[in-house]
Amino acid sequence: MKRLHLIWSCPLSDTNRITATNAYAFGKLNYFLPVITCKLQYLQSMDRDIRKLLTENGARHPNASIPSLHLDKKLGGRGIKSVEQEYKLAKIKTMLHITYAKDNHMQYVRQHEHNKKVHRSIVKDAEKYAQEFGIALHLADEADGYSLCYETETKAYAAVGKSANVVLKTAVNNNLQQQIAQQPWQGNIMKDAWISESLDPSSLAWLSRWKTCPSPTVAAIEEIRQQILPTRMYYSAKLQQQQPTTKCRFCGKKDETVYHVLSNCDALSPSDYVARHNAGLKCLFFALLKKHNLIDRTPAWYSPGKPSPVYENQTIKLTWDIPIFTEGVIQHNRPDVVLWDKEKRKIVILEMTVVWFSTIQEKKAIKDQKYASLRAELKRQYSDHDISQISVVFDILGGHDRDLKQQLRTLVKPMNVERVMSNMQKAIAVGTTRIAQKLKYLTK
User: Fold this and answer.
1) Which end of the chain is more exposed for a tag (fewer CB within 10 A), N or C?
2) Is 98 within 8 Å of 148 (Cβ atoms)?
3) What is the pLDDT of residues 309-353, one digit of tens each?
4) Dihedral pair phi/psi, residue 200, rounded to 5°
């Protein structure tokens, strides 16, 4: 615990803290776990102390989901190892090593463990823990040792020897995902993201690529994803605490839920939502300016600067939030960004919105329909031009659909798409956490 206190009290990024925890703190335990026998209650107590330490240092909400803390980062978790989980995996790996090791001396160890008449042995413990993870152990041939078999709904895994690490990791993550999916409050959003056919798989993993993100920001994103912000509905429905009213403290019209505060409140829409929207969009806008040599240098994603309304040279014209005046009267004639390519005779309408997790496809269709009349009028006026629209839709924590990355490749350099999207996701997620922080100030 002394090592953990040192790590989580240092001014490191969340990624570096987790890496140090898994390597520096757990590295010491890995020497002893394969050979010692511990009561699970003691290991569970150590895990509770670790969670308490994270909470005290602002890296975790006290009511946050426990399985998500240990889930792999690429699946939306924090990726912090669990002492109990590492102990069980160590027993399985030790049993596998005993059975497939070619060392002659290991034969005596193998015979001793298999012939034990006592209640506890490495083999018995390993079989028990493997069953908890849904793994089947088969001793097909004593010379070859045990093989691991693990099946999911879509794929079957089998491994022998050192390659079993991949099977074990897959089984552990699937087991944690099942636990999260069974949590009706904290796990609801993550479960929907895993089974969604339209959401890009990297929508939950992008945070793992933000190496400099501080722990309080990650903890705030985790609170939002698990819907444990201190809203009035959270206190009333989840914590069963009596509230004088459940109406929103900002607009006073609808029930104060995480969905309402972060994406559907009329009082926050003209200010906080617009600031979040512009912070994400300008990352893409500045990348377009740099590609077409309209600016010399791209500002950082957290830069407070605001783009000018019009940028133009001999070949390209880019406008930011400027109405398009047409011969016919068009109600919706003010898209976020318009790119006029004079050489290729092309006009691209770029529209962006930030929405709730489950409404990405719905809002994208609404955006496309909203500017259909404008596209038709532009096509009538500029019959020799190619008129198109790209609707960029992110959820409030930076998730997006599967087609967005391919669409952006038509706008910015393909080699820069990942960086631009990452910057947009950072800006949107930070904007969302600022709105959540505003709510917390009212709660205090």
Assistant:
1) C
2) no
3) 999 999 999 999 999 988 878 889 999 999 999 999 999 999 999
4) -65, 135
Pairing status of strand 145-151 against strand 136-141: antiparallel
Closest CA to 213 of 59, 438, 7: 59
Q: Give the E-state strand segments of 267-333 in sequence order.
A: 310-312, 316-320
Q: What angle do CA 207, 208, 214 make, to 5 degrees?
A: 70
- The CA-CA-CA angle for residues 317, 322, 328, to 5°, reads 100
Predicted pLDDT of residue 202: 82
What are the domain boundaries of the chain? 2-182, 202-269+436-443, 272-420
For the segment(s) 272-420, the CATH number from 3.40.50, 3.40.91, 3.20.20, 3.30.420 is 3.40.91
Tens of pLDDT, residue by residue over 272-281, are 999 999 999 9
Which amino acid is it at 306? Answer: K
- Cα separation, 31 vs 28, in Å, equals 6
Question: What pTM value is reported for the model?
Answer: 0.90
Residue pair 218/210 in contact by the 8 Å Cβ criterion: no
